[in-house]
User: Fold Germin-like protein from Rubroshorea leprosula.
Amino acid sequence: MAPNPLHTNTNHEKEHWMKMFLPILFLCSVFFSSSYAAVQDFCVADLSAPFGPAGYSCKKPATVTVNDFVFSGLGASGNTSNLIKAAVTPAFDAQFPGVNGLGVSLARIDLAKGGVIPMHTHPGASEVLIVIEGSICAGFIDSANKVYFRSLAKGDIMVFPQGLLHFQVNAGKSPALAFASFSSANPGLQILDFALFANNLPSELIEKTTFLDDAQVKKLKKVLGGTG
Assistant:
């Protein structure tokens, strides 16, 4: 029996339309699944609740006010009368509950003459620095130990990739001011000097892992408050 041409054409048409609509259906499913994943507009931090691996819990929407989305703490200079002659004023989720869960935060950096933000990392975020006043020498070291640094003037911007060691030093003869933005509401912080010399890690282990001699390690521990 000869094949039915009408039946064959109908099958071809079905295949044609399926090929056209399957990608569209897939895109629609992705769109709607992502839309429904955002079940609320924001998650203002409930600072009375414990801080966990996923951050702060959300305040009940009925208790949220406009004040949760406003932070005025970056308008005043930080106290630079300290060992590093610098001050960092954070506007992270602990200080600024409205940024909780939004993947953004800010900080103010004040550097007195000779001030320095020591080598440090932010495990949870990349950083963008903009210089507002003065001159700042800033840089970072990549995982291949290549160094990227330069002196930044007013209006200059530099980015520091997530997790990489970086620093800022006042490169001028007057106070410097900068603001930093982060790709996390809680970028985290580990300062290399404090990680090595401000705790009770035995000096002999530090000496073996850093190739510093005992006198240098003991001196740095004394300056930074470490023991052992």
User: Anything to note?
Assistant: The longest helix spans residues 5-37. The chain is about 25% helix and 25% strand. Strands lie at 86-91, 105-111, 116-121, 127-133, 136-141, 147-152, 157-160, 165-170, 176-182, 190-191. The first strand starts at residue 86 and ends at 91.
